[in-house]
Amino acid sequence: MKLNKKSKATLITVGTSVVIASGFTGYAIMNHDSAVAPHKSKPAISAKHKVDPKLGETARKNLDANEKEQLKEIIHETNSGSPLIQENRVAKLTDNEKSQLAKILSEGDNPSILLLDTVPKQTDKSIINLVTKPKEKEVVPIIEPTKPDESQEQEIPTEPEIIIPPKIDPPVEPPIIDPPLIENSIPIIYTENKTIHVGTSFDPMAGVHALDFEDGDISSFVQVTYNGVNTSEEGSYLVMYEVTDKSGGKASKSITVTVINDAPEIFASDKTISIGDNFDPLEGVTASDTEDGDLTSSITILENNLDTSTEGIYQITYIVKDNYGKESSQINIKVTVVNDAPSIQADNLVLHVGELFDPLKGVTASDKQDGDLTSKIEVISNSVDTSAEGEYEVQYSVTDSHNKTVIKTIQIVVVNDAPQIIAEDRTILVGDLFDPLEDVTAQDTEDGDLTAKIEVISNTVDTLTEGEYTVFYSVKDSQDKLTTKVVTITVRGVL
Ligand SMILES: [Ca+2]
Ligand SMILES: [Ca+2]
Ligand SMILES: [Ca+2]
Q: Is residue 48 a contact partner of residue 111, using CB atoms and an 8 Å limit?
């Protein structure tokens, strides 16, 4: 056989190695890295492409048969139970369909697996071929060794000028033809899931950075490829970013932006009021909201059974909605309506023996609800005896129109003052007449003038002899209260 360097070697290349999912035949999965860096020789399936098989169950139910079939083509369930996203299929979806798929997949715990934006924009045929072809039996290229062969030599005697190489060693390793290897690191987008309050502005580029090993900071090249955020409605929204470095290396990242709306709060406390009070159920009740601030003017009374004319415990229920329609918890307060007790105005008294005593004189009663209740006062006990000194008690009671009764007790003290003798020391001349009762009087608080009752108990005056003498008086009032007095009488001679 004629050995030709060019023709005899059989070479079937496997080409770029593509990792095939375990037990998965007929398809190769293009992963993110292979898609964006087609020249890398050994892309690996990123864990990011594995999809929780339970993902999107709810959303899947809403698909029609055709849509389900489409989804099936996009997400292949492998024997290991880990479905994988086939991104070249995703590339054919419209934006609307991508959004739908994103919703299905975003029901899982980790929406970051959504790498729909990693779909290659320009198809690399070498990869697509591998993707669509069943795995062929790999054949290594072998250059058949030339064996010195007698018969071959006999076939070419007419061309003796051809020199046959004496020996060609078989290659130790089959030569694998790889595409040129150009290393380019894929940039990385740095951004995180965010939580914002409803009604606040959302800048998808705030805090987003992209770094590339070769190009450095390429944050300014980051593009928002999808922004589903609606800041006026609570929910979880997808935002997708993409960046391409100078060598065409593409990276993408998805985050979830959660728009929250705090429920407003009502501040109200229990109250106690009096029967008949004017009561404004909104007075002192306030409401506030994280997003809307003061919502006091929006408070609604859901329930109010208050009857201010009757004693009892009543309930008022409030609620408030914020500007986005979120309701507060229902807040209940108790309003206790009380009947104030009436009061009796009566003071302790000191009386003199013999004084007239009218227990109702000067005593009044009043009530917050009923006003003047003086006419309803009852004397329920009265031990006062004004004819004798002593301490006595009087008890009053009064009942208001709501049947509330109060009792008041006062002390009455009956006193008897001692009588007073009015007599002065005197000087007389020897030989003057002396009447011990002259100009001597007696008075008593209770009995009045007691002069007539004055008694001269002793009188030592000798008007004929100079000297100092004493006169001793006494008087008793009608209660036999005794008073005594001593005066000095001086008798002196004529100068
Ligand atoms: Ca709110
Ligand atoms: Ca009352
Ligand atoms: Ca007296």
A: no
